[in-house]
Amino acid sequence: MNFPLEINLNIYKNQNNHLSNMSNDELIEHYSFYGCNEGLISTAIKNRHDFIGLVPKDKMILEIGPLCFPSMPVGQSNVHTVDYFSVDELKENYKNDKNIDINKICNVTYVLKNKTKYNEIIPKIFDYCFSSHNIEHVPCLITFLNNVSSILKSNSYFFLCIPDYRFCFDHFRNPSNIFEILDSYYNNSDKPSPVAHLESMYLTCHNDSVRHWETLDNSIKNIFISINENKTFLNTQKKKIIDEIEIIKKKYQTCKTEYIDAHCWKFTPFSFHNIIDILYQTKFIDFQIERVYKTLKGSNEFYVILKKN
What we know:
Layout: H1 9-15, H2 24-38, H3 48-52, E1 61-64, E2 79-83, H4 87-93, E3 110-111, E4 126-132, H5 141-150, E5 152-163, H6 178-186, H7 194-202, H8 209-221, H9 223-243, H10 245-257, H11 269-281, E6 287-293, E7 301-308
Parallel strand pairs: 1-2, 1-4, 2-3, 4-5
Antiparallel strand pairs: 5-7, 6-7
Helix pairs in contact: 7-10, 8-9
């Protein structure tokens, strides 16, 4: 398939008037140093709607964990869903969540609970797989990607919407690295770690992506703004951690035996690209990067297409 380029120089120039007099070489240099970090539009994929539109809706599609916000036409017979929990369990889990209308939770075609391999419960092979804000929750990234691969045809595609940790509530946490990914694989992680859960409790902040972008813009002008923001946040959380240390001790033990949802992984477009490249070239996975559409200003997510080889 021919997907839009990650950087289209005509679009980049036309969408950003201050670049109108630049040559192609100057545009490439500007994007590499500034545009990609400033969230400037450089591609035909300008939002989630554009990205979803890349998936052919007449093929066999598996959507992972849509809850009540499906991106694919889940009412069609060619679109199946998979989740860790059944519909009844999801309704019970979210009955007190004001952001979730439990009556709109999608039908779950395949329930993963107590299964480690997708192909043990999913008898079909799909043309495409779609996932929105799921990959950051999986305890083992390598196992998850290999599971998805097992139910996809060769040369097919996995479409992902992924939160950019810099512009969501994970802002003050550290980005995941390849050794954490490998550690979860060799430890056969099947639930979020105590560290992931406790960080989610004590090191997360507001989820206003526009405010996070404003902080980044101001930090470009004065780096001490970002430094002071970090200091203020960590000093505030320090007191909370000290006051609640007994709760933390109990939570640490609970997380070892119970599955408690959390953001296990924190990515940027570059860090995710880098990790997938390493895993593919070292043969841990058979997905390679097809496209990474970087986070645009004001947004808190980026878009990825992986190709199964």
